[in-house]
Amino acid sequence: MRHEKDYYQKIGFKCGLEIHQRLLTSEKLFCSCSANKEGEKLPIKIERTLRAVVGELGEIDKATGFESMKGRRFIYNTYKDTSCLVEIDEEPPHEVNKEALEISYLIAATFNASLPDEIEVMRKEVVDGSDPSAFQRTMLIGYDGFLELNGRKINIPSIFLEEESSGIESSDSEVVIYNVNRLGIPLIEIDTDPEIKNPDEAKEVAMSIGTLLRLTGKVQRGIGTIRQDVNVSIKEGARIEIKGFQELEVMDEIIDNEIERQQKLIEISKKLKERKAEVGEAIDATEIFSKTGAKIIKSAIEKKGVVLATKLSGFKGLIGMEINPDRRLGSEISDYAKIAGVGGIIHSDEDLKGYGISEEEINNLCNKLEIKENDAFIIIAGEKEKAEKAISLARYRAEYAIKGVPPETRGIDSKKNITKFLRPLPGGARMYPETDEKPILVDHKLYEEIKKNVPSIERIESRLMNEIGNKQIVEELIRSPKLQDYFYIAEKVKDAYQLIATTLLQKMKELKRLGIDVERISNDTLICIFERYKNRIITKQAFEPIIKALPRNCSDVDRIIEEQKLVRISGDELIELIKNEIDKGNKQKNLIISSIMSKYRLNIDGEELNDVIDVLLKVDK
Amino acid sequence: MYSEEIEKALKKEKIEVGDKIKLISPKGEFKGILMERPELGDNNILVIKLDNGYNVGIRFEKGSKIEKVESKEAKKEKEVKFKAKTKSGLPEVGLIYTGGTIGSKVDYRSGGVFMLTKPEELLAEVPELENIANIELNPLMSIASEDMTYIEWQKIAKAVADALKKDRGVVITHGTDTMHYTSAALSFMLNGLNAPVILTGSQRSSDRGSSDAFMNLICSMHVAAKSNIAEVAICMHESSSDTYCSIIRGTKARKMHTSRRDAFKPINNKPIARISRAGEIEYISEYNKIREDSDDKLRLLTGYEPKVALIKAYPNSQPEIIDYYLSKGFKGIIIEGTGLGHTPVSTLHKEYSWLEHVKNAVDSGMIIGITSQCLYGRVNPNVYRNLRLLSNAGAIYCEDMLPEVAYVKLGFLLGNYKKEEAEKMLNVNIAGEITKRSEIDWFI
Fold it and tell me: What pLDDT band is residue A39 in, cutting at 50, 70 and 90?
């Protein structure tokens, strides 16, 4: 992280994590659809409209008076194998999946949580259409938990068991298309108290929680099966929910950049307050640009659109002020405008001539808006309805810039490791009991039994040390998402433990970076390769060419070994080869090695070659 | 209700459901709103709504203490005044509310589902209706349709007849379970109907954003306000999508799925029409049209003979059931037979043959009608010997009429006509319940 630990305390840094993890069950949470198939056959499309009580944008909808969800159609792509009537709200939910419930108890135990006496299933209203029922089913299964980290207790006040939502396929102002495949997969949500002290700690907590979850062996693995969200705020800033951390490695950098963004915005707001800044009304400036050479504006007008402008008094120089590398206040205002479907905004802190706007047009606009010394303006060009909504949103954001930092949900720009606006922070969603589900009586005796299976990092470390013997590799493996793969393979092969670990941790990553789609190789196929190695059919060196050929199964592996002539040369055959070299006149060990290896590098084990040459040369003497 | 122990503790602290409380129990401290105890589960477990919105159940054990933190806010009963805003130029339509899922809501605090007694609340959520018609609202009753009897059918028929004195159409909200029974009853009772009478309901309660109630109501209102359909019909979703509703003749509709939005299908028929969410009506098959220049007045025939039964024939069924009904003074039975209208007749063991019992009942003055549990298709009194035997015994074969509709019809006929007339009218078409031709695409 960028600063010393006490810096974060000084700036009033507050941080909490929300982890969502998909559980490894065969069926979904409230029906018997598969929880781990993809559903390949052609989708059946179901179209619905929602009567949203409050729009998706919550406060903004109230402030700007426009209901973002009104009139939108939702198309749900449903697949026969993974969706049933329950997913599309055509049948009441079935009883809670017992397998999922027990896994959630195990996770509660892993984080030292208590279980209530009765679990009440709730409905949480969802207004963005991602759930055909217009609500998500969720339940609190654990409370008062904690994570021990470096001698400190990080409190985990709540653990929830809930349904995964649909995946969004596309969205515009009229239609949103969802894929209902994963809707209903059981998900555990772990929330920490907002008492994380600094970005490094945030990263550590996220990694620890992730590792512990994986160690239970009962969670799904793969991209998208775990989602880490971080809530961050600083003194005078606002709570920002950052969603979608894929690579935990850069979590601290992203948080540091977010802190910087908030600090810059606070700085801007103070300056604006000093200048008594104000946001003006939107005016129609289409006339002024009727003959413009500016391409963006011209094309909007040609399509019968309008050009709207607003004076932002006191904003001069501040819209263009950088808040993150290559991002300004203007970029944030533009993000809000884009919600309405326009391409963005043009603001006066930019090089207007670069857009093709003439001096005359600028003067005319400044006159019309009565622009004075410290004033700025923004321009939005586009189809009338969209432009009107856009400028309303832009004005809203500009007004907030005077107040300070708006509470938002932000995503991650992984190229620059900064956050990017997604949507305003939602208010508390309405929650009420799911009357189609009986309350669940908790079996505390069962919980005591389950506690015995809580994963212990110490126990696993000691087992791995026994098998692998190398502390560094063991520590890396424990933190790695490949740990479960290691267990699966090692348990079958029962040999070559260190090789299995290093292949998973290093070799596969290396090959992936070269562009080889190693994810396609199943663990069972890998077991095949390790067994061939264990049975001395191939050497270590053969691994790379075999993996590169992307074998689909055991017979593929054998076929590749044959086709690429990867069979190990050993024992008598090897002796023969060496003898030939000696007979040719090669009596020096390293010459023999380089001669043989230049031809048979993939087929000969270096150690064996070394040993046999030694014996033969000695004999020869 | 909570357990005696809990109720005692609550009473002592003057705590009511809805108050903010603090529970100190061996399991820990819990602060939140006290919720009503759900009907199912252990009533010695307190349900508390935490600040995060979640409900949690904590047992009231030895050593537990409950304290009141704050009394609940006095719930201001929002006076929801649905003022039928009369817009000039809009047609007058009656809206009769009888209950059902379409008129039920979930109480966010207690979590209970309850029927709206103020239909104004439902209408307040569907402001589109005001632009379709001037609505005359009649909150007639609030009954789950599985609990309805012929007495409710009579009340509804009278209310419709009254409404039609000033309105050009009527919409009736109704539970879906027995909506097709009521629609059949109304089809017969509203003799000479010259206006659209549309029943509608919903499979998903109206408090959900995803409810089918809204579109169903809006479409029904469109049909009642501007179509020239002079029949009783059911308006519900045509498919699982919110794209079209189906208008199905009341004597040919049946609820064919326990939970789907498009549960109602026409049997031995095609829908009269389909209507889009925007209110565009597309007519699909023949129907009775409004007769503009007609002097014929609506004749309300609300008589109904309740001593009529609907029974199913199946392998091993005991035909003594007919004797039982006869002994109880029943006047008619509709049999849901197998295939073309069979009951067991030439069984190896005589005690399973229905023939004698049917003959006996007919000779004693009962009307016995035959329909098929296949639902689709037409029964036939001639094709097999067993059918002819039954027919000769006096059983009346009811063409392609649905069993439930035949049952309602028989009660209606015996309630309004003498036995001899009723017998003659059973398998003759009155209100679309019997067709002469079975079209080729009238199957699933």
Answer: low
Please tell me the predicted confidence (pLDDT) of residue A620.
62
> For residue A590, what pLDDT is reported?
86
Residue A18 has pLDDT above 80, yes or no: yes
How wide is the angle at C-alpha B126 spanned by C-alphas B120 and B128, nearest 5°?
Answer: 125
Q: Can B101 be counted among the known catalytic residues?
A: yes
B255 labelled catalytic: yes
Which residues lie closer than 8 Å to A263 by C-beta, 6 or more apart?
A: A11, A234, A237
Q: Which two tokens stand for residue B396?
A: 């009346």
Give the chain B residue nearest A437 (alpha carbons).
B40
Over range A142-163, report the average pLDDT: 94
CA dihedral A101, A103, A105, A107 (to 10 degrees): -140
pLDDT at A383 over 70: yes
Given A117, A428, A429, which is nearest B59 (Cβ)?
A: A117
Determine the Cα–Cα distance for residues B289 and A11; give it in Å rounded to an integer: 77
CA angle (A588, A594, A598) in 5-degree steps: 150
- Contact assignment for A47 to B204 by CB distance below 8 Å: no
Taking the model in full, what pTM does it have? 0.86
Residue holding tokens 């993974």?
A: A82
- Token duo for residue B198: 């549309």
Contact B59 A119 (CB under 8 A): no
The partner residue sitting opposite A52, judged by closest CB among B58, B106, B209, is: B209
Summarised one tens digit per residue, pLDDT across range B302-349 is: 999 999 999 999 999 999 999 999 999 999 999 999 999 999 999 999
DSSP B307: -
pLDDT at residue number A591: 86
Whether A266 and A236 have beta carbons less than 8 Å apart is answered as yes
Which residue in the set A48, A89, A118 is minimally distant from B57, CB to CB?
A: A118
Mutate to test the interface with B, among A49, A67, A160 (most CBs of B within 10 A): A49
| CA A129/CA A177 separation, integer angstroms | 9
Of residues A79 and B263, more confidence is placed in B263
Q: Which pLDDT belongs to residue A582?
A: 84
* Paired residues of A136 in beta bridges: A124
Residue B133 has pLDDT above 60, yes or no: yes
Report d(CA A199, CA A336) in Å as an integer.
28
What tokens were used for B79? Answer: 């006076």
Minimal Cα–Cα distance from A504 to chain B, Å? 42
Q: Which residue of B has its CA nearest to A91?
A: B259
Q: Which amino acid is at B299?
A: R
CB-CB under 8 Å, A133 with B210: yes
Confidence of residue B77 (pLDDT cuts 50, 70, 90): low
Cα end-to-end span (Å), chain A:
63
Query: Nearest Cα to A141, choosing from A164, A122, A166?
Result: A122
Per the model's pLDDT, the better-predicted residue between A159 and A571 turns out to be A159
pLDDT confidence of residue A173: 74
Interhelix angle A471-479/A457-468, rounded to 10 degrees, is 130
Residues of chain A contacting B48 with CB distance shorter than 8 Å: none
Q: Is the pLDDT of residue A57 over 70?
A: no
In chain B, which residues touch A (CB < 8 A)?
Answer: 27-28, 35, 38, 40-42, 45, 47, 50, 52-59, 106-113, 125, 203-204, 208-211, 214-215, 240-243, 258-261, 277
Q: Where are the alpha helices (DSSP H) in A80-233?
A: 98-110, 199-215
The answer to whether the CB of A258 falls within 8 A of the CB of A232 is yes
* Residue B117: active-site member: no
Query: Is B86 noted as a catalytic residue in this protein?
Result: no
b/e code A144-164 from CB counts within 10 Å (16+ = b): bbbbeeeeeebbbbbbbbbbb
- Which of the two residues, B255 and A478, has the higher pLDDT score? B255
> Dihedrals φ, ψ of A341, to 5°?
100, 10
